[in-house]
Amino acid sequence: MVQTLLSTARTVALMDDYRGPFDPAFHLGRLSRRALAVLCREYMLAGHLQDRAGMPQVSARCGSKAMREVAIEEWMGASPIYTRRMQRALGFCGDDVATIFKGMQLDVGAPHQFMDFRFKVTDGLHGEFWLPYCGALMDVEPMGDKHVIGMCHQIEDPTFDATAVATNPRARMRPIHRPPRQPADRVPHCHWQVSIDPDAPPLTEIAATALVRQSRLAQVQIVANVGREPGGWEDYSGAFDPDFQFEDLAHPALTVAAQELCLQSHLLVRSFMTAIARRWGDDAAREIAAAQWVGIAALTAERLRAAMRIEGDEPAAIAKLLQLHPSFLPRAYVDFHVTVEGDSVCCWLGDCDGLNEGDTFSWFALLDRQPHRALEAMVRVINPRAQLTACALPGARLAWRVRIDACAEPAAEPPEVAITKISKGAGFTFTPRRPVRV
Question: pTM above 0.85?
């Protein structure tokens, strides 16, 4: 069930976007259900596309075979953990096919519409899903059948079953058909059956999952924040809805779901870095993850700016973007603060679990006094003349100041961002599949 932290503060109007003034006390609970639904879809897509930023870096250094191995271990190491977290957060624990499908609807690996999953539950032990449109296939299909087989066969076979393991270790996902497409324009792009055999030997998690589960990140407790708008489901404990969309959830449930989606992305980073370090060492993991963060940080910033209608190129616009960016959510894990002081922005991290993992397997472990290139990439989406410097603030572990230098040359887009934008997800437009239910 969703835990709610109620506020005794005066009631404030909820925001449908972030066009208004900068609010130093902003939190996700200040957004309306409509805005939170938009944000959830953006956070899902960001979590999905961070592999578009990271995997090319692995492939360039270590080859395509190594990239597939890392991709498999990354998802198998993280997805069972975050699947169970979301089940607990939205109250739909169970061991049947419907529960598996609910988890898939709330998985950053399956961003709504871009990965257009459709579902059919036959009974508690049987079901099917299919994709009339698969954005991931659209990204790799132009590369040829070898790359398609690598994704749709070699990667999906173990990772789909790992997703099912979180709900029932005797569940299996098997293709009815899948790419390479024959004929070339075949729709749906793929079609799978899901079955649970009570007599089948149970699948077990890989060792990497246990390592990721030991992190502080995996154990963070998230509660709904202040703000309350009527309507919607308090959780997802009711019947499975094959047409689920985020607008169906109540306000507290949406604030929790949005934060859990950001946490899913961080779990994937941790699993990604662990898989790389196990093969090539911590330095390689840090180098590749740094490039990954730069690529996805800027692309996500561009999409958030448009989705939340952040206007202008002044410090207040930079501050709004930083408040919304999933790199610094959930706040229960990342004690991140943003203020506007005259013509500059101050952002800082206080003491928090995100800085106290005691290892190198997170984006936060890449931070030091000097501004990271990922942070620069984010703020320069708003203004390419933004300049960052380290600063000291009371109570801050790390702090940076952002100023606009009108005399500076506009910064060029980092090459890591251009690589990430090769994905069709970079310019993907979400469109309503059905009217919002009242």
Answer: yes
The set of long-range contacts for 364-371, using a CB threshold of 8 Å and a minimum separation of 24, is: 364/334, 365/286, 366/286, 366/289, 366/290, 366/293, 367/398, 368/398, 369/398, 371/400
- The β-bridge partners of 26 are none
Query: Do 393 and 350 touch, CB atoms closer than 8 A?
Result: no
Place of tokens 């690589």: 419
R_g of the chain, CA atoms, integer Å:
21
Residues across the chain: 438
Computed from CA positions of residues 105, 108, 111, 116, in that sequence, does the dihedral angle turn out positive or negative? negative
Instruction: With a cut of 80, say whether residue 7 has pLDDT above it.
Output: no
Q: How far apart are CA 147 and CA 180, in angstroms?
A: 9
Tens digits of residue pLDDT in 238-255 = 999 999 999 999 999 999
What is the token pair recorded at 350? 């206080």
Cis peptide before 56 (omega within 30 of 0): no
- Cα 374 to Cα 96: distance, rounded to the nearest angstrom: 41
DSSP run (H or E) holding 60:
helix 33-62
Token pair for 114: 């871009």
The DSSP string of 129-185 is EEES-BHHHHHHGGG-HHHHHIIIIIIHHHHHHHHHHTT-TTEEEEEEE-SSPSSTT
Backbone torsions φ then ψ of 97, nearest 5 degrees? -65, -40
Q: Distances in Å between the alpha carbon of 200 and those of 21, 49, 94, 101, 197? A: 58, 34, 18, 20, 5
